[in-house]
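quick one before i forget lol
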Amino acid sequence: METFKLNASIRERTGNQVGALRREGLVPAVVYANGIDSINLSLNGRELEKIYSEAGESSLVELSIDGQSPRMVVIKSVQHGPLRSDIIHVDLVEVKMGEKMEIYVEFEFVGESPAIKASGGMLGRSMDGVDVRCLPKDLVQNIQIDLGLLKNVGDVIHIKDLVVPEGFEILAEPDDVIATASAAEEVEEETITTPADVESVQVVGKGGDKDKQEESGKS
């Protein structure tokens, strides 16, 4: 699979100082690795957004920090600003090429379901992706789901129907449902209810039911 390249610098500014960093077009980041202290970084905002739009969170990224030897990472978590158009923070996780890793891979739904096209059925999606275990070199950006398998209303695509690369281990039950072709739902007629008689509604004030208070006072 394609490997993306990203440059970074060691970040000294933390806490309230990261606001100034963002105004300079930089994005604060942290890279994590097993057995090693996390490293605070700053990334070029435009470069990061371009790579993230292409790589997502299940692609290898070659990270170079201040010109040092590159290390292989994946984008783990991205925080967006209020408008969702800009990235304000990102977490990266370093991977070891010889060790298997667990990562979430999104589904890409492709093709067209004959059941939906011919019968006017509806596509029901139960999952948008799945956790997998694999070597970093075997990572894929997404797993394709062929909607052509849904030939008739009532057909179901399960985890066991997935076609994945060799060495991939799907961390889900084989019978877990990914997508279904269902009959179009009928619109139920609205039930019109008669408004309650306002005069028949008993209003209880802050002190409770007055009649009950008087009765309790007499007892």
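fyi The chain has four helices and 13 strands.
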